[in-house]
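Task card 7
Instruction: Convert sequence to C-alpha cells.
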Amino acid sequence: MDTKTIAKAVSGLKGEIQIPGDKSISHRSVMFSALGSTPVHITNFLHAQDCMSTAACMQSLGAKVEFLSDTELIVTGNGLHGLKEPDMIIDAGNSGTTLRLMMGILAPQPFLTTFTGDASLHKRPMGRVIKPLSQMGAKIFGRQQNQKLPITIVPAEGRFQGMTYNSPVASAQVKSAVLLAGMYAEGDTTVVEPFTSRDHTERMLEAFGVHTEKQGTAVTIHPVDEFRAPKEIEVPGDISSAAYWLVAGAIIPGSDLMLRNVGVNPTRTGILDVLKDMGADIEVLNERTSGGEAAADIRVRYSRLQGTRFGAEIMPRLIDEIPVIAVAALFAEGDTVITGAGELRVKETDRLQAITDQFNKLAPGAVEGQEDGLIIHGGRKIEPAAAFSYDDHRIAMSLAILGAAGEGVTIERPECVNISYPAFYQTLEELR
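Output:
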C-alpha cells in the first residue's frame, strides 16, 4: 500500500472508541516483567511495531514472552540479574523508547549487546542517553562520536556508580534510562530535569516494589536487589492515540464521540488542558486507577475553538500531540502560537518542518515554522491535496484528521500508522 485516500467526513463523527493500549506503558510492562522472576499477565498490550520490538528484544535477552492473543501476553523473566547475552544483534526497529530504555538496563550488565534499527532510528540522536550512562561507568560505542546506531554496549570496567544528573532536556526516555541503570549502581542515582517529564517509569517501578523519591523536578532511585513482579498489569488506552479523536470530535460539526479507557496520567494530559483552553467541549468521566496509572472515559463534542498559546513548561505533557493540536489550531478562530517545541526536530522526522510543509498544502499559508515552534493562522480555507507522511505515524494520522475535517487528503506512505495504531484508518471509516 503506497497511497491511501482519506475522503472528507460528510457529517459529524459519532460512536464509541476503545482506545488501544498506551505505547509507553506497553513498552515498560514487558521490559519490567522480564526483570522479575514470576509470570506477569499483561492485558490491553499495544500490538504495534514499536512494542513488538520491545517484546522481541526481551526474548533475545532470555525472557519468556508468550502471546495469548494480539493484546494479551504472559512474560516471565529470570530475575533482576538474570538477563542473558543475546546470540545476535538486537533490532529496535523504529522504537526510540526501546533503544533508550534498554541502554539503561543493559549498560550495567556483564555482557556485550549490539543494537541496530530502521533507517529513521539510525538518524536519531542517542548521545543524550549515552552521555549520562558513560558518566556512571558504561562503555558504549556508536557511530558519529557515540551518537548514533549501530550501538554496542560492552561490560563496564569496575563498578557502576550512582550520580546526580542535571538533564538539559525534560525527557522521560533520558530520565528512565538513567534511573534504570541506577538500579544496578553503587549509591543513589538522581535525575534533575528542567521540567517534570512523564512518569510512567516511576509508577511502574512502584508496581514492582521499587520506591523512587520525588522532590521538585528531581527523582532519586536507590540500588535495587529484586523486582517483585505483580501478577497482572492492565495497560490503559493511549492518550496519544485518543488525541486524534479528541481533535476530530472537537472540529468536525455534529460530532459526539465517547473514548473508552483512556490513560489520564497527569504528566500526559497536556492536550486536554490545551483543547479546553481553546474552548473544546470535553468531559472526563468514570475516573479510576489500574497498576498505578489513572484511566477514564472521555466524551468530546463539536464546539467552536479559539486560538491559544503555550510553551516549554507544558511541552513534556503533550510533545507527541503537537501535530494533531496543529490540526485543531487550523480550525480555531485567530492565531495559535507554540514555542519551546524544538524537541520535535529530532523525532521520527523533523516534525516542525513536516507540519509546516505538509499542512500548508491543505491550508496554504496557514502555518509558519519557527526554530522551536509554530505560528498557526486559524480559519483559512482548507483545500483537498496530496501530502507526504515521512513514514511518521503521528504526521500520517494528523493529516488524515485534517483531510477528514476538510476537503479530503491523499496520504503518500500511510502505512506507518502501524507503528502505534494499526486500526486507525479502519476506526476512522467506521465512525463516518
